[in-house]
Design goal:
3% of the residues lie in helices and 37% in strands. By secondary structure, the protein is mainly beta.
Length: 588
Amino acid sequence: MHIRMATACTALLLALALLPLAPQPAAAQGAANTEFVPVTDAMHENPAPGDWLMWRRTQNGWGYSPLDEINRENVGELRMVWTRALREGTNQATPIAYGGVLYVPNPSHATQAIDAVTGDLLWEYVRPIPEDANDYIRGLVQVNRNAAIYGNLIIDTANDGYLYALNAQTGSLVWETEILNLYELPARHSTGPIIANGMVVSGRSCRPWAGPEACIIAAHDPRTGAEMWRTRLIPAPGEPGNETWGDVPYEERGHVGSWMAPSYDPELNLVYVVTSVTSPAPKFLLGGADLRHLYHNSTLALDGDTGEIKWYYQHLNDHWDLDHPFERLLVDTAVAPDPLAVSWVNPNLRPGERRRVVTGIPGKTGIVYTLDRETGEFLWANPTTTQNVVNSIDGATGAVTENSEVVFSAEGQEVLTCPSYFGGKDWETGIYSPQTNAMYFPLRNTCARMLATTEAAGIYALATRNEISPGTDQVGTIQAISAETGATLWRYEQRSATMSLVGTAGGLLFGGDVNGRFRALDQETGEVLWEINLGSSVTGFPITYAVDGRQYVAVSTGSANSASAFRGLTPEIRPTAANIMFVFALPD
């Protein structure tokens, strides 16, 4: 499963990466016009309060900032301080905020450096993708959710199969490394890397026709691009888990990708990797519905030094395209699930015992799972939205039993599944707040009539008709869930689908929706304290940062597949799709 590598990068030599930094471009203004301080491993493990150095700010995936200048009492005074148009395409950007600069991943693998105070463009880099790339990938993605920062480099993945690094002050290319040959092992890169254990760790969405060798997690040296290790997400003959694919030939196994970013625990030196569904999704088309097809829809803990799989937990034997590749929250908490509120609990758990856990909603089922992050032991799980695909979970073993009534057994069979492939939950992220010891998630009330058919368009062999869950006309929800007890603390609901969240020490939860509203909610109560209409779907991941002691909140709007898809459920909501970065602050 694990392959150790020590290949050199395919472009510029290490000496080039270590050249003195070039002067900052003349276009740089204001707070961005300062001496650049290289970003270190220690800074990633404990970022300064005003910085946002990675996808969810910290390696534990919390999406939480200790900034509190903007708080419950004054959030109503927030004002827009600047806006800037981003490049065209599907936008789901997470800016990096460092040294007075926002490094913004734009659609189609472009990167912009923007003055974080004024909104002025400092530099732009556009990755040249081969013109014939779409012939091999068969559906290039424009999504570019995040990048990484290390030393004086901005590092990202691209649809051409490369990992590459840019000089943070000039935007010039410093090195590039081929991870997968585009023409032999095509893969899509919709989410960029994180920094973990001093390495650049990245996943990808492997295309089913590429075979299992494209379904990998890889780690590279951030200074040179040299590959350190790679781990396959589909076992080969002779490896543990191979038997879970039955008689399916190794070369016909595919699409078990990890298309969202992992989390990392530096004390345990474990990288928590998250995986997606197979293709096709109905397992009767892939050797049999009784097979587990490892490691699809799983959480895997990898050794940070070697990439070796230390443990795994499979959340669902998926027949319905209910991916499980979403953010994992690493939390230290007392674990005392409320028996009146939580459906499945490990009977061997000592209530109130303090544990290191990996928790959150890993997949589209909307079920919260809490596992011991040292061992993978199942602790508790509970649904948050209407679901009928999981029948039960054995508390002692964590084994999941799917609902046999909705498991496909033949082509042409139709079933009603809840949720639909919209989720439950999808790529839009939740957060953990240490102030409340609670998790907050953007969720959806959706179901679908699903038909198993190899004649369906796409790669999942499914045809779907989506609908709102029975008993409600509200698609979007935000739910606050105790990390200790699993109880739902409050629930906010609305007609429009909700999008990604960010939390702050000011007691606030910022998030937007498909209808273009961006708002601040009280973490304690769910009360809306401030709201603005941005006129376009809020598709980016919001962040907050500080420059010279002043706190800012940034979020972007634009086009995203899930935003347009909801038009069938809420036809009266038809927002525009303008890719714009909006930044807010309190009045001077």
